[in-house]
Specification:
By secondary structure, this protein is α+β, with helices and mostly antiparallel strands. Helix content is 44%, strand content 12%. The chain has helices spanning 3-19, 43-51, 79-82, 87-102, 109-117, 154-162, 171-180, 207-220, 226-237, 270-278, 313-328, 339-350, 360-363, 369-380, 393-401, 412-423, 428-435, 439-456, and strands at 73-77, 121-127, 142-150, 189-198, 248-250, 261-267, 282-286, 298-304.
């Protein structure tokens, strides 16, 4: 069982035992203090943990202070030098895995094996300004674990989709192709960001966003000047005093290659979704059926790479298709998602859509004259409950989703209440518990929304 589920069991037990202490069962927690596989302070265990970088330091040492993210640079870590066995390379591996471990990533020996053997996996790091010298490693501000994906044959994807077969590797191409039943997406080339981690002492200071912006900027640049190459070669000579390639390679020095998108896959939470949305990523896939023992849902967000400002056609079609499926399933498979996350997902897709003016012809598609009579009756009479317009709440939510009203017209709470009750089919009690609002405030919010709708009409 996961830690989150154990905490939920404890909370439920404490609440039930406080309410009725006679009929509830007792919950006993047994803690195993003696190690099973190794004895205490076993030298073999220490050696294995040190070899596989599974024993991070208590607190990574950070000496360079907090430099301005604008003056920091990102470098590609050369894998041949990283696994050369040199003392400096071993220190760099430990630094990278320390940052991943302190960013709540579940590290395993497979991560080290992927970096060593998988030809498509790479590590990028952002470091402060420093002078190149022998045996010196700068502080790592942010580490980025990426993988190249895509460029799969369309016929191969079509055969596997018809047989409902999933091939391991290339996560985003296979999942998105199966979700949209479009084998052409697998032919595109892209980068999947597997992990991004910032030093624990400088979290929430913009270093992660700056790392992503630098990566996107470098991928956009195609033509490099020869003068820059000469300067980079002189700097590289300072590092090549042993018979291996330099550990840190400037991204501007590498040959440019065409990429169609940058993608990321993660378990959906509000802070993570807002972070990727802020950096220009848009959601194109959300797992409908959650895991057996967890309510977490996996989502995929993509940032297309294009020379012009206009987004590619395939990206626009995928967004429209996802928005249609997502809104239709809000009351079923996506009912358990918190309403603030649902609102952010809707706003992420609706940013580029045009607003439809509220006219009589448009509004008649949703509401009849009898519906308007009920709405006026509910607004004017304080003793009338919400049940009189309960069947109209999904229609009101559809008006918001159809982008009939301006974004500035409705408040944040009004959007949450209408979407939660109307689209997700949640009760007032569930909205009250989720948003920490009182019942009369929820009813007042619905009335405020109706007055704004009628004013625009």
């Amino acid at each position: 069982l996961c830690v989150k589920m154990l905490n939920n069991i404890k909370e439920f037990h404490y609440i039930s035992s406080a309410s009725n202490s006679e009929t509830t069962r007792t919950l006993k927690e047994i803690i195993l203090e003696e190690p099973i596989r190794y004895s205490e302070c076993d030298p073999v265990e220490k050696w294995i943990n040190k070899l596989l970088c599974l024993d991070p330091l208590k607190n990574p040492v950070f000496l360079s202070g907090c430099p301005d993210p604008k003056i920091c640079k990102i470098f590609l870590v050369d894998r041949n030098a990283l696994f050369s066995g040199h003392k400096v390379s071993r220190c760099l591996i430990q630094k990278i895995f320390n940052i991943f471990a302190f960013s709540h990533y579940k590290n395993s020996p497979d991560d080290l094996q992927l970096l060593c053997d998988a030809p498509s996996h790479r590590i990028l790091i952002m470091v402060p300004p420093f002078n190149f010298s022998i045996g010196f490693l700068p502080d790592i501000l942010c580490a980025l674990h990426i993988s190249y994906e895509g460029q799969i044959s369309r016929s191969f994807v079509q055969r596997n989709l018809l047989k409902n077969r999933y091939v391991s590797g290339d996560l985003i191409p296979w999942v998105v192709s199966k979700y949209n039943l479009d084998s052409s997406f697998a032919e595109l080339s892209g980068i999947r960001i597997i992990r991004i981690a910032t030093h624990p002492d400088i979290k929430n200071m913009g270093y992660g966003s700056k790392t992503l912006s630098l990566l996107q900027k470098i991928l956009k640049e195609r033509n490099l000047k020869r003068e820059k190459k000469k300067k980079i070669e002189t700097k590289r000579e300072l590092l090549t005093h042993w018979d291996i390639s330099p550990i840190l390679v400037n991204m501007e020095e590498r040959k440019n290659f065409t990429l169609d998108y940058i993608g990321v896959s993660f378990c959906l939470t509000l802070p993570l979704f807002c972070f990727w949305r802020k950096n220009g990523f848009s959601i194109v896939f959300l797992q409908g059926d959650s895991k057996k023992f967890s309510t977490e849902k996996v989502c995929i967000m993509i940032n297309p790479r294009c020379i012009k400002k206009q987004k590619p056609l395939w990206f626009k079609n995928y967004r429209k298709e996802f928005f249609r499926k997502f809104t239709n399933l809000l009351g079923n498979e996506f009912k358990s998602i918190p309403t603030p996350i649902v609102y952010n997902i809707i706003e992420n897709i609706k940013l580029e859509s045009k607003r439809i003016s509220v006219t009589k012809n448009n509004i008649k598609k949703f509401l009849t004259p009898f519906d308007f009579n009920r709405l006026f009756f509910f607004m004017e009479k304080n003793f009338i409950g919400v049940k009189i317009i309960s069947d109209l709440l999904p229609t009101l939510a559809r008006i918001i989703l159809s982008n009939f009203l301006k974004k500035d017209n409705l408040s944040y709470v009004e959007n949450l209440v209408i979407i939660g009750i109307g689209s997700q089919n949640k009760t007032i009690h569930e909205i009250k518990k989720e948003l920490c609002l009182k019942t009369f405030i929820i009813i007042l919010t619905i009335k405020n929304f109706l007055t704004k709708l009628i004013k625009n009409f």
